[in-house]
Amino acid sequence: MRFAFEVKESDLLGRVGSLRVGGRSVETPCLFPVIHPVVQTVPTSEIKRMGFEGVMTNSYIMYSRRREEAAKMGVHRLVDFDGMVMTDSGGYQVLEYGDLGIGVREVAEFQQRIGSDLAVTLDKPTGNSESRSYAEETVRESLKGALKTIRDFPDDPTVWVGPVQGGTFPDLLKRSATALVKAGFPFLALGSPTLVMESYRFADLAKMIVATRESIPYSVPLHLFGAGHPLTMPLAVALGCDTFDSASYILFARRGNYITERGVVSLRQMKVLTCNCPVCVGTSVEGLLGIQERQRATLLATHNLWALRREVEVCKEAIAEGRLWDLVQERATAHPRLFEALEVFTKEGRLLQEGTPAMKERGLFVRGGADLARPEVSIAKQRLARAIRKGSSEAVILTGPNPQSARAAGNSEGRQKDFFRMGPIYGPYPVELDFVYPFTQTVSSEGVSGVTLAEATKMLRKQGYARVRVEGAKRNTLRSKQRSKAVSPSPP
Amino acid sequence: MRFAFEVKESDLLGRVGSLRVGGRSVETPCLFPVIHPVVQTVPTSEIKRMGFEGVMTNSYIMYSRRREEAAKMGVHRLVDFDGMVMTDSGGYQVLEYGDLGIGVREVAEFQQRIGSDLAVTLDKPTGNSESRSYAEETVRESLKGALKTIRDFPDDPTVWVGPVQGGTFPDLLKRSATALVKAGFPFLALGSPTLVMESYRFADLAKMIVATRESIPYSVPLHLFGAGHPLTMPLAVALGCDTFDSASYILFARRGNYITERGVVSLRQMKVLTCNCPVCVGTSVEGLLGIQERQRATLLATHNLWALRREVEVCKEAIAEGRLWDLVQERATAHPRLFEALEVFTKEGRLLQEGTPAMKERGLFVRGGADLARPEVSIAKQRLARAIRKGSSEAVILTGPNPQSARAAGNSEGRQKDFFRMGPIYGPYPVELDFVYPFTQTVSSEGVSGVTLAEATKMLRKQGYARVRVEGAKRNTLRSKQRSKAVSPSPP
Fold first, then answer.
1. Which helix (H) or strand (E) holds B428?
2. Is A320 helix (H, G, I), strand (E, B) or coil?
3. Catalytic residue check, B88
4. 3-state DSSP call for residue A240?
5. Which of A20, A30, A414, B375 would be a feasible disulfide site paired with B353, CB 3.0-4.6 Å?
6. pLDDT at residue number A401
7. Is the peptide bond before A375 cis (omega within 30 degrees of 0)?
């Protein structure tokens, strides 16, 4: 098979995976830097050295400006990159500059001829349009091109990527994605989010991704077009985007903008470079401002790529460590518009459970109310509901600080009573779950409202216990951590 | 004067400053990596190349193990560092290993002899003690040593640093700090937070810093001992700590731990290195695990220093950009215990106003309720209260989208009415403030509860307007941004 996608680690809807096309493969999440077929700001050799395994280039521009050369050399030699090469169809350019006699067939033929590994079929981007009828038209047209391509061209050497259109209309996105999957596309690409992102409509972006991801099988990877804004990467990954492409590193650089994980800043507004990449370690803000504009743009673009690469690696590591939810929360704090997108995110608890492991090696963080929507918490509650099996008529809630002793108590008395402990946010759970994730591994902030002993007692009575007894300190809200008492001290 | 501290930029209680001792200076916030006088994991030449301008070393260990050599060579040549050298007194070691015949006088004499730039007088650390009487004793003893030193030894070549003790007892910290300032110490150092930090009691740490900072003049710089945990840096800087020292980069490295801005991770639990520093760019998790333990510790320690250096630079840049509040919020999201410390932070709004500029060049972010405690918001409200001067009996609230037209309206009608606009969180403000920071520069999340038109009307009536009229769209809550309407779309 020419195409394979294997999920190795997952958290929420984010996955670390291996995407293989023919003899080439990339590890996902993966960013494909956009390479201009003619003007090259950062050499591909440099991009390769930085560790990028794939690049994206534009087949339309190549067709219109280096057609013969590309056909003869192949796209890999032309852009001087022997990793994975994805080509965009040029739907946007056709729209912008007229069709110049190039249609679905020509685009497909050309992409195959130059040996693209992954090629998007010719589409009609919805763009930023808020007209439903226009959005419908783009979905129809894009789908027509996609179906024609996949019917007329075998997937060798090129694997076809299905373009999902529909703009910000969820039902159209769904229609588009469903039809592409049905037609046999092994890989989809969500179009047109660039303008949505440029206007910082991150909540809308999140809804677009959710609408698409919900409509396609978990095993189908999803590409997000033009998603080079550093702030959106963790959110997009967590909602199930596997690959990205972006020319943002160049575009920002040309305008003198510097990418950080906290957002994009104008170099002229900066005092210190907040990065340890090879570019930044060797220079300073003054150093960059003191050189020629063209040279500065190249250095800025290179830094920007390092910064984006780092963000991808941070996402990958967060998935592997099971801390993707936390990463999304941290990054979302960087901008109020991104903070709004969190609401979409927390509403999708059920969807996010799909890829979230039931067991993790790290503590589970609960900072505040929004974290109660974590899929790990929901999974734990479901597990808890199944775990409570009444073995007697008396329940004992143990509130002592040491789970070990509680367990001993549970074992020694031979099940004449059922022993429970209190989790700060789970309420009463059987002592048998004491060392089961995440009951004792949950670390919550003081501010998070816990289940009270009175509530816990009521819950157990509801489950049929005639008697509920509390053993140990009767604190009102129980917490798993011992806390300090000083700072507002009293004499010892 | 041998000592000078000049604040160049400030935000909250954080400052970018220049700290000068004799002919040497460092830019603050500044981290002094701890150099062991005998065993050197990362060469000082390397530390210098990384851009660190100062180091910290221990005069007690030097005294007990390299006394003659140090006296002859001087501390700068001994540790091979020509930047600023700060020496700790060894109070902790005296406590731990007995006094070995070394007292306040010997420690001071020795530090001066070896030519320390900054030297802490011999103190008795409170440590983690929760005994008030013991804490009182440590304050008394430390103060005695400090006063004796500053009386008996001129500040040349060495500038004395006054050790603030008192553990987590705010009144003792205050007593300690106040006495040191009164005695003429130009620079104080807050002791004993290491254990508090190691047990992740970040709220307590915040309270300790606040108690100290409140007791000393704004112009006196404050050092925080042993503060090498990456998570605490922005919080400590924002509460007014100017310099730090830490051996954490080595200690973590020896235990195989890797510093990130999201916390400290065991290398064995990692999949990918999430850093672009010179160490990480040249290797991988497998690469680091595959080498000898000693070599690995050196590489990890070097990476850890790069990571800490970056965090210091991020703080510096955040101060210069006026985004320190945002940075603290972002970083605090990384751990529930740190999230708790935010509460202390938001309570100190009045204190934080001291260093916060009234005008900033960037948008003001309001993500949620906690951000309403931002000093910028309070300053704006105070300014607003002064700005409202009733010029007529009729108030008009303009709700149109364009501030420009509102201004024109205000001017053209010759003040027969007073024109107001609605700020998303400020309520009605005079149109004259339209382009004044932060009234039109505030970017708030959808979720932040705004002032309603009804409330605004009531507020203006209270201020004596007989008539209050609304011109423009009567939306219930007004927002400064145009929002998208699609995603739950209706046909156009």
1. strand B427-430
2. helix
3. yes
4. coil
5. B375
6. 62
7. no
Centre a 10 Å sphere on the Cβ of residue B322 and count the other Cβ atoms it contains. 21
Distance CA A81, CA B50 (A): 33
Report whether the peptide linkage leading into residue A37 is cis, meaning its omega lies within 30 degrees of zero: no
User: Alpha-carbon distance A50 to A33, whole Å?
Assistant: 11
Quote the crossing angle between the two packed helices A336-347 and A202-215, to the nearest 10°. Answer: 30
Check: CB of residue A245 under 8 Å from CB of residue A163.
Answer: no
Give the pLDDT confidence of A436-452 residue by residue, as tens digits. 888 888 888 877 777 88
Residue A94 has phi, psi (to 5 degrees) of -60, -45
Asked if residue A43 has a cis previous peptide bond (ω within 30° of 0), the answer is no
- A340 vs B contacts (CB less than 8 Å): 445-447
Condensed to tens digits (0 to 9), the pLDDT of residues B201-250 reads 999 999 999 999 999 999 999 999 988 888 899 999 999 999 999 999 99
For residue B227, the Cα-to-chain-centroid distance in whole angstroms is 11
Which 3 state secondary structure label does DSSP give B247?
coil
Tell me which amino acid residue A250 is. Answer: I
Distance from CA of B295 to the nearest CA of A (A): 21
Nearest CA in chain A to B268: A321
B192: left (phi over 0), alpha (psi -120 to 50) or beta: left
Token couple for A219: 């095993």
Joined tokens for residue B141: 């003893």
Q: Which two tokens stand for residue A434?
A: 């004491």
Q: Which stretches of B333-391 are DSSP H helices?
A: 336-347, 349-353, 375-387
Note the pLDDT tens digit of each residue in B73-113.
999 999 999 999 999 988 877 777 766 678 899 999 999 99
The Cβ-side half-sphere exposure at A415, using a 13 Å CA radius, reads 5
**Cβ–Cβ contact A201 with B under 8 A:** yes
A 424-483 residues with CB < 8 A to B: 443-448
What distance in Å separates the CA atoms of residue A384 and residue A423, rounded to the nearest whole number? Answer: 11
CA dihedral (B99, B101, B107, B111) positive or negative:
negative
pTM: predicted TM-score of the whole model, two decimal places: 0.90
The DSSP call for residue A392 is S
Nearest to A275 among B207, B276, B329 (CB): B276
Give mean pLDDT, residues A248-259.
96
Range of lowest pLDDT (A215-229, A391-405, B207-221): A391-405
Alpha carbons B439 and A14: distance in angstroms, whole number: 39
Strands B394-398 and B364-366: unpaired
Share of chain A above pLDDT 90, in %: 59
Instruction: Work out the angle at residue A125's Cα, subtended by the Cα atoms of residues A36 and A223, and round it to the nearest 5 degrees.
Output: 65
CA A20 to chain centre: 20
What b/e sequence results for A245-282 when a residue is b if at least 16 CB atoms lie within 10 Å of its CB, and e otherwise? bbbbbbbbbeebbbbbbbbbbebeebbbbbbbbbbbbe
The structure tokens 């209706």 sit at B490
User: Where would I find the H helices in A322-432?
Assistant: 324-332, 336-347, 349-353, 375-387, 403-412
Per annotation, catalytic residue among A11, A82, A88, A245: A88
Q: CA A338, CA A321: separation in Å to the nearest integer?
A: 23
| CB-based contacts of B191, cutoff 8 Å, min separation 6 | B91, B123, B125, B126, B142, B163, B164, B165, B225
